[in-house]
């Protein structure tokens, strides 16, 4: 019975995630319209400071939900999903590029800052390392990357959050030490902390590209 229920939930998630609009609606509901993520982006990247002087990369932008957090003329969102990027291009301002994170179709040292939100916990270590190598390549020396990844809810009474974490489709949830080791070749850890957005908990890692 449990396996049958799991299969049913998996099929439902497949159907919802196949529709960018439905996926956005679901995530907005469970994450309180992404208030937590947006606050962290504003705090750590300050996208509206010195507008026109910095270029921003949204690495694994998905449906483009966070494009409006950045000045549109200085924002590039990349993802492997053509349907998601078609939706993003119709819905949000900015430039969107279909490309693999492990082999970016972008020039060297182009960006001053990057957002990586909910990407790495979907990638096994070798692929995550390749993606971080590419991220390092396209960032300028000293650039900041804000990396936000799913973690198990620290509060055991956050039952809804526990359920969402169980439903999460990423198979490579890591702890802070694991991420520190992944980042070390190309980035220095500036700070890390946890935050909650709606019922979902995240680890936040602010890193700086080595000069």
Describe the structure.
The chain has a single domain (2-209), classed as Vaccinia Virus protein VP39 (Rossmann fold, 3-Layer(aba) Sandwich), CATH 3.40.50. The chain has helices spanning 2-17, 20-30, 35-45, 82-91, 125-138, 159-167, 176-183; strands spanning 56-59, 75-79, 95-98, 111-117, 139-150, 187-197, 200-209. Strand 2 (75-79), helix 4 (82-91) and strand 3 (95-98) form a beta-alpha-beta unit. The chain has a 7-stranded mixed beta sheet with strand order 3-2-1-4-5-7-6, sandwiched between helices. Helices cover 37% and strands 25% of the residues. The mean pLDDT is 86. The radius of gyration is 17 Å and the shape is globular. The chain is α/β, with parallel strands linked by helices.
